[in-house]
Specification:
8 helices; 83% helix; disordered N terminus; 229 residues
């Protein structure tokens, strides 16, 4: 028996990717910049935690607003479709026929399917939402779950580059360990991200690693330049 294997990236996985991506990169760059400026580990930890808190709230709020916008847009289009099948049913039937025409169905069969579908307004509208507008009904409480998932993922990602600073007082030394830990995590995360999005695994992992390392290096060097060291 033939089995098809398709990788499906759920909304939750997408939210984890969004949160972890910024969570690993931004605090890492901040810690590197502060270390380059000669700040103590205590200052790096304080600033890093403040950034993680602010960043997780901002990212979570962004996810919440995006989810609410998606739900509001779906409800608006749903109402519009119900109004249109009442006001201009023949035009809506013509749009159904256009969809099935793309599948190669004959004109007679298009008429038959459109007329049959018009008998159930709910199924008719659902078909138009999916195949004319390309909209799927959002899951209940999607916005709230997205906000929590993105926010928590950001916190988890942000703690990783900061962890050496909790244990090592000398910020320059802590930075070396932070770089080593974060580089490994960026590569692993990039590999996972590439896998769930169907991209080439190794090149995708290297891309994420390069972006994170570039941001940290830029912050570190800029701090050095500003402080004249």
């Amino acid at each position: 028996m033939h089995h098809e294997h398709h990788l499906r990236s759920s909304d939750t996985i997408r939210d984890i990717v969004i949160g972890m991506s910024d969570g690993l990169t931004v605090p890492f760059a901040l810690a590197a910049g502060l270390s380059g400026a000669g700040s103590t580990s205590g200052i790096v930890v304080t600033a890093g935690i403040a950034e993680i808190v602010a960043g997780s709230i901002a990212m979570g709020l962004g996810g919440f607003l995006a989810g609410r916008t998606e739900a509001d847009h779906y409800r608006s289009e749903l109402q519009r479709e119900y109004e249109e099948i009442e006001r201009v049913p023949e035009q809506e039937k013509a749009e159904v026929k256009e969809v099935f025409a793309t599948f190669g169905l004959s004109a007679a069969l298009q008429d038959e399917v459109a007329n049959e579908m018009a008998k159930d307004k709910d199924k008719w509208v659902d078909f138009m939402m999916r195949y004319e507008l390309g909209l799927e009904k959002p899951e209940p409480n999607r916005a709230s779950r997205s906000a929590v998932t993105i926010g928590v993922s950001y916190i988890v990602g942000g703690i990783i580059p900061l962890s050496p600073y909790f244990l090592i007082n000398e910020s320059q030394k802590a930075l070396y360990y932070s770089c080593a830990i974060t580089i490994v995590c960026l590569f692993v995360f990039g590999y996972f991200k590439s896998k769930v999005t169907g991209q080439p695994l190794f090149s995708g992992a290297l891309k994420v690693l390069f972006i994170g390392a570039l941001a940290a290096a830029a912050a570190f060097l800029m701090a050095k330049v500003i402080n004249g060291r």
